[in-house]
Amino acid sequence: DTFMFEGHATTSMALTYVLYLTGYYPEVQRKLRQEVDGVFGGLDPECDVTADHLRELKYMDMVIKEAQRLLPSVPLMGRTIDEDMLLDGKAVPKGTDVTISIYALHHDPNVWDKPEEFIPERFSPEQSKNRNPFAFTPFSAGLRNCIGQKI
């Protein structure tokens, strides 16, 4: 039951944020509409949408990721340190519970240029290729990441 309910809440929040931001930024909405029309415009309205069609929606993928970065559905994640470590020169002993702010990570100006702005293009292949893979973690990260992230 937990998997089902957690997935519903986070998915509905993420979709709400995407719709809100798309409505708030008409230029983004226009680009999305052009992309959707380009992929589906010439198709029979009765045809099934396939995974291949969805893979063509590159800009939509960028918009969804940017919405998840700007307004993460899950703003925090917890972990327990499994071995003694140093963090910024301070000892953190094994067994310490830590909380990681996904919101702060996604708004870090050392990682994101203009972090408070909605800029879907920051998730283009060119801008993403040199970014640390843990800089964007809307589904958590590592062994305990969200099992539904690929859905």
TrEMBL record:
Xref: InterPro entries: Cyt_P450 (IPR001128), Cyt_P450_CS (IPR017972), Cyt_P450_E_grp-I (IPR002401), Cyt_P450_sf (IPR036396), Cytochrome_P450_Monoox (IPR050196)
Chain residues that bind heme: C146
Cofactor(s) the protein needs: heme
Taxonomic lineage of the native organism: Eukaryota, Metazoa, Ecdysozoa, Arthropoda, Chelicerata
Protein name as it appears in the record: CYP4
Entry's Gene Ontology molecular function annotations: heme binding; iron ion binding; monooxygenase activity; oxidoreductase activity, acting on paired donors, with incorporation or reduction of molecular oxygen
Biological source species: Neoseiulus womersleyi
Pfam families: p450
Family to which this protein belongs: Belongs to the cytochrome P450 family.
Entry annotated with the keyword Oxidoreductase: yes
